[in-house]
Specification:
Structural class: alpha+beta
CATH class of the largest domain: Mainly Beta
Number of strands: 36
Number of helices: 14
Distance between the termini: 89 Å
Shape: globular
Strand content: 25-35%
Bound molecules: 1-deoxynojirimycin, calcium ion
Length: 720
Amino acid sequence: MNRFLLLLFFTTIFSFSYSQTFFSPDKRLSLVFSLTKQGEPEYQLFYENKPVVAPSRLGILLLQQKNFADVFSIANIETTSVDNSWNPVWGEVKTIRNHYNEMKITLKQNYSDDNDIPHERRMILAFRLFNDGLGFRYEFPKQPELGYFIVTDELTQFAMTGAHKTFWIPGDYDSNEYPYNHTALSEINGTALRNASEISTRSTFGRFGVQTPLMMKTNENLYINIFEAALVNYPAMNLVVDTSTFLLSAHLVPDMYGNKAYLQTPFTTPWRTILVSDKAEDILSSKMILNLNEPCTLSDVSWITPQKFIGVWWELHVGKSTWNYADTGNLILAKTDWSKLTPNGKHGATTARVKYYIDFASKHKIDAVLVEGWNIGWEDWFGEWKEEVFDFVTPYPDFNVVELQKYAAEKNVKLIMHHETSASVTNYERRMDSAYRFMKEYGYETVKTGYVGRIIPRGEHHDGQWMVNHYQRVTEKTASYKIMVDMHEPVRPTGLHRTYPNWLANEAARGNEFNAWSIGNAPDHETILPFTRLLGGPMDYTPGIFQTEMSYYKKDKKERVHTTLVKQLALYVTMYSPLQMAADLPENYERFSDAFTFIEDVPVDWDDTKILDAEPGEYISIARKAKNKNEWYLGAVTDEHRRTMRASLSFLSPKQKYTATLYLDAPNAHWEKNPMAYTIKKYLVTGKTTLKLLLAPGGGAAVSIKPATKEEEKLLKNYQ
Ligand code: NOJ
Ligand code: CA
């Protein structure tokens, strides 16, 4: 071949670039997939022909093997359309529609190694376009040239088209318990961070990393959310932000060697997701994350029950009582005679105190009581990276497991067990079976786990592949014992509760507890969480704190809840979870028993949900229909601004009269100056009614709507 022909040959091969457009079922979203001249895969996303994601790279980087990044050609393209529906075991709605177009592109990678030996490998890119967003993932079929492989990072990019308004928390590998920052994409950096003192050093933050879900709003009022679905056997995805070009690049949580994932073919990565809409409400009602998860794997789900609970909990956080029984430090689990320790006189989880909670639960239609600090080990449980702290089967001498089992059963109340692991996960894994057997023996059907501190195996992170696999092992093992689970300090959820419905809830964000002992959660916090953390699944936020000022417990305490009392009620509707705590002390609920009626009434499982109004960082208003009941509950929350919100009740059955009980901020209520002032009003309403709700600064509104009795029809006034 002469030089000219050779040149011609190469230009033909390498100038070949490929491009393919693909649409969502309603055609509003379109995806352009292309291969560059170098055979690099790229994608773009458009919403009504406007770019949402500019050309962005795709690929996976490997350790000591050729990267899946370039010299690809198309081997095959398959498209399918799916439109079906399914019923979750529990949820915000009874039936979920799963409607998308899928394009699966099989890419062939041909290259020669240093010894001129030719190789061929395959990687599949699967794109699913729903009407509300895009999901895509990498698939690695079993193939001769790819068996075991180690991922050093993902090349996945999300090129944003401007300095969008962004709600973000720093890319800490070990915690999501941060207040949200809102800045332009171009201003994501350390100085913008709220509560910078709380940042851990083990994070991407030094490289301006942020966590997902990342919620953004463009100047043209487009809402964009980047996240992931079905995080299995893989680390969580953070994003590194280029503040000048607005390019977001995937950054996976590493292990101590800096590697990201150890994999074997066949393997599929989690879905990378981009929700897009010109309505903020659509982001909250989207079911795309759930639809991208696998169906339920459990054949019998009859034992899984959504529940409301109270617990020996808030009193520990406000310092009224302690988890620990003694005040002695430096104890060795196996070598201590716990019955001989001198009690400190403040232990919370005593048999008598738990009976008091059981009595309250039984009287007020609360399903269960959580008990923390029941088991030995709390004397020096945290902060030391200690392997053996808890054994999960030995109660303190003043906590009588048998007596409480009997007492709770008589009162028809369940007990929830607490397993704080202090992040000594190897210890927990060794003891899980005996711990769950112990639970079953003494009648516990739900466990709350916790991972406070630095992970053992030392060097692993809460959000890395090893821990992601641990949370799944816990979920599968608890399911095999018919135990439901609520995890604190896990990786952020990604919709896996569809696959494992015994995984009722997670914390994985900054919960209400921060208001007990830190500068707390700003009034806008609960207007952001549903747009971020909650997209992956229910949160155990622990709402319902009525006594908002902590000075009530000790004069010099400055900590406080940054909401009104009524906003705490509204959270039972706006923060969806099948597991909801009534987090305050029974004695505080007795003080405000008329307001507590809302918590008694509000369900934890729903047939339907209407997102009435929403704007991240400002307000949210949601109405939900109780499961198998003709009752609706409405919750509205605002940030630090006073607000009037209108709620049309057009979702009610047209011919019926209902009694609406309105729990409202008093006219002079204010989260800081007058948080506990409220009024309760009852009216007759119909589907033609529009409620006008006045929300105090940092306030809310909560409404229960039930068919009116004959008597109520006579006595109550129509809502005007
Ligand atoms: C932090 C959890 O979020 C909280 O709920 C629990 O009480 C403490 N850890 C102790 O386990
Ligand atoms: Ca926590």
